[in-house]
C-alpha cells in the first residue's frame, strides 16, 4: 500500500535553501514537486528582472510568499539613513512587481563603535514610520524579522518576537507585521505567548522554518539545519502559529553549504518529505 | 602629573582569561598587579589540590570569588543524573575548601535527540532542590548562570536572567543565586528590570564581565572580547548591578585564544587597565 501523498498546499521554499538552482530551474522543480510557494531574494530577482520573475512564477503556478529583504535601518548618519530608505523603497517596488504582500526586514546591527542598542532600535521604528505609507500604497506589508540574539551586534538589533511586536504595534497591522522564524526564536520560552499575541492582532506576516544544529560555523550565518536534523520542535511551533489563527504559507529557509553542494532538485524533494514528516500533522 | 592609580579593590580575574599562567604564577602576578580576587576552575584546582590552592590564594592575599563550574543537570537517565549530582557535590566540597561562597552552575543542554526544552529546564530545578541543603551546609551558594541563547541546545537551557531568577526564586536566596554575565545578557532589553529584581531579592551571586565581538568563531565558545573591544556597555551594566545593591567582586572572564598566546602578566596588566577604563567610573 502506498501512503497518501502529503499535503504540500502550504509549503513554500525560500530560494536560498537551494541557491544552486537558477530561477527558471527552481520554478520548474517546484512545480514538478508540487510545492506551490516560493520565497525570493532581491539579488537574483534583480538579475532576472522583477517582472520576468513574476511571469515565471505565474507560468509555473507559484505564489511568491515573501521577498527577502529590506531593512538595515540602524545607521546613525543622515546620508546613510537616506540611502537605506531609498533602497527599501526600491525593495517595496520589487515586492509589488512580484505580487508578494510581504517584504522581510532585517533591522541592521549596531553602527561601528556604538554600544547603544536602544538608540539603534529607535531608528528602526523611525524607518518603519517613514516607509509605512509607501508600503501600503503598494499593497506590501513590512515584516519585521527578529533574528537570534547572536546577530544583535552585526545584523539585527531586534532579537525577540516580543520586541518585534512592540515595534510593529506602533503601526497599523496592515502596514507592519512580524516574521516568526523557528531558527531565531526556538530557545525563547516566551514565544508561545508572543505567537498568541501576534496572531490575535493579525501581525504574523510570515512563518519560516529551519532547524537548529550545532556546532555553529564561523560567523554563524550558514549553519541552519535541514528540518528534523536539530533541536527545534517544528511541529509544536506550526501548531502554535495555526492556533493563533495564521493560515498562510510555511516557508522553509535554510542557509547551509552542505545543501548547496547537492543536486538542487534532490534537496527540494528531501525538504518536502522532511516538511511532511516534521512540520505537518 | 601622574593619574591616580585606579581602584582595583573589586576586581577579580577568572583564571581562564589567562589560562597560560599556572596557578602559582597567576597568584603572584595578581598580587603584583594589585588585583585582589581570582575566579578558579575545577580542573586546575583539582590538579593543584584544593587545599593547596586555598593556601596559595591566602599567601598572596587573594579572595577566591567563584569556582567554575558545576551543573550539567539535564540528562534524562537516572544513572547519568546520579553521576551529575555526585560530581556537583564534589564541586561543592572543592568550593568549600577554597573558601569561596559561589559555585557557578552551567545548566546543561538538551539531551541527544531531545527537543523538550521545558522538560530539561525542569530537571535543572530538580537538581537544585536536591543539592540545596548540601550546598548550604558547606556555606556555598549555587549560582545559576544564564548562558547566551546560542548555547541553548548544547550547553545551557537557561538563556535569560529572567529564567534564571524564575528558577532561583523557587529556593531560599542563601541557597540559590544567579550570575550576571555581560557576555551572555547584553542583547536582552529586559536585563535592566531583571537586574533590579535580582538585586532586590539578594540573588546576585556573581557579576562577570567580557565584551561581545564578531565574527564569532566556529563553535562560538572562544570568541569573547577584551573589555572595551566590543559592543557591550560595560559601565552601564556595572552601574545597574551596583544600583541594585550588589557590592561584590567584578570578575573578568574572557575565553579567547588571542589572549592565551600572549604573555600572561601583560594580559593581566592590560585587563586591569581596561577594567579601569571601561567598567569603573
Automatic annotation (TrEMBL), chains A, B:
Ranges for domain Xylose isomerase-like TIM barrel: 29-269
A Pfam family of this chain: AP_endonuc_2
GO molecular function, a single term: isomerase activity
Keyword Transferase: no
Alphabetic keyword roster: Isomerase
InterPro entries: IolE/XylAMocC-like, Xyl_isomerase-like_sf, Xyl_isomerase-like_TIM-brl
Record-linked Gene3D superfamilies: Divalent-metal-dependent TIM barrel enzymes (3.20.20.150)
High-level lineage: Bacteria, Bacillati, Actinomycetota, Actinomycetes, Kitasatosporales
Protein name: Sugar phosphate isomerase/epimerase
Protein's organism: Streptomyces boncukensis
Isomerase among keywords: yes
Amino acid at each position: 500500500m502506498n501512503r497518501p501523498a502529503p499535503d504540500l498546499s502550504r509549503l513554500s521554499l525560500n530560494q536560498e535553501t537551494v541557491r544552486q538552482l537558477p530561477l527558471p530551474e527552481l520554478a520548474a522543480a517546484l512545480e514538478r514537486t508540487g510545492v506551490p510557494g516560493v520565497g525570493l531574494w532581491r539579488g537574483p530577482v534583480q538579475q532576472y528582472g522583477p517582472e520576468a520573475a513574476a511571469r515565471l512564477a505565474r507560468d509555473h503556478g507559484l505564489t511568491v510568499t515573501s521577498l527577502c529583504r529590506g531593512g538595515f535601518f540602524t545607521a546613525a548618519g543622515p546620508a546613510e539613513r537616506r540611502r537605506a530608505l531609498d533602497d527599501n523603497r526600491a525593495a517595496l517596488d520589487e515586492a509589488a512587481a512580484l505580487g508578494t504582500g510581504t517584504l522581510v526586514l532585517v533591522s541592521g546591527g549596531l553602527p561601528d563603535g556604538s554600544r547603544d542598542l536602544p538608540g539603534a532600535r529607535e531608528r528602526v521604528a523611525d524607518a518603519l514610520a517613514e516607509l509605512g505609507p509607501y508600503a501600503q500604497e503598494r499593497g506590501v506589508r513590512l515584516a519585521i524579522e527578529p533574528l537570534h540574539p547572536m546577530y544583535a551586534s552585526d545584523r539585527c538589533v531586534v532579537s525577540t518576537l516580543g520586541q518585534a511586536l512592540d515595534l510593529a504595534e506602533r503601526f497599523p497591522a496592515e502596514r507592519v507585521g512580524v516574521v516568526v522564524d523557528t531558527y531565531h526564536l526556538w530557545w525563547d520560552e516566551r514565544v508561545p505567548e508572543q505567537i498568541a499575541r501576534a496572531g490575535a492582532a493579525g501581525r504574523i506576516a510570515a512563518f519560516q522554518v529551519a532547524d537548529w544544529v550545532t556546532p555553529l560555523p564561523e560567523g554563524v550565518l550558514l549553519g541552519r539545519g535541514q528540518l528534523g536534523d536539530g533541536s527545534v520542535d517544528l511541529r509544536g511551533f506550526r501548531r502554535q502559529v495555526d492556533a493563533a489563527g495564521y493560515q498562510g504559507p510555511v516557508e522553509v529557509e535554510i542557509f547551509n553549504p552542505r545543501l548547496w553542494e547537492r543536486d538542487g532538485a534532490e534537496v527540494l524533494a528531501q525538504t518536502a518529505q522532511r516538511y511532511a514528516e516534521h512540520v505537518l500533522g
